[in-house]
Amino acid sequence: MKKIKDERLILQNLKNIRIAYIIQTLGILGILGYDLVTKGLDVMTENPLWIVFMVTVVVSAFLSMNVSVDHENQEKSSKNGLVLSLLIIIFISIVVGTLTSLSEGYSIINGVIIGGVLLICGLLPVTYVYYLRTKQQSENADE
């Protein structure tokens, strides 16, 4: 099988993949929505399609980060963005953890766990974007 070299055919193939992705996503959302309406939230999140949907959303978000960084202005300092993002994530984690531990029925341990999970989940995309920015800056410096 030969690799396609015609840019028009590559673009058409990408458009076809996008349409198939949209139809697949709508189908998954339809099935999950049906489970939500008929059986409730707990049954919907136990459905294996929920995991497929969540993994697809996360992968799509990380892939779009790459495009966003390529589209950014070259003059931005990646260190400043990293520090600001880290401060915001730490602040949000502390606030949510504190509010959780002060809520009725939750202990300080629950607040620490929820705040920690938020911190870790926030650190992953922030460090990935920082990596992409530094990689892009080093590639631009080499040119």
TrEMBL record:
Superkingdom of the source species: Bacteria
Regions that span the bilayer: 20-37, 49-69, 81-102, 108-131
Keywords of this entry: Membrane, Transmembrane, Transmembrane helix
Record-given protein name: Branched-chain amino acid ABC transporter substrate-binding protein
Organism: Halobacillus campisalis
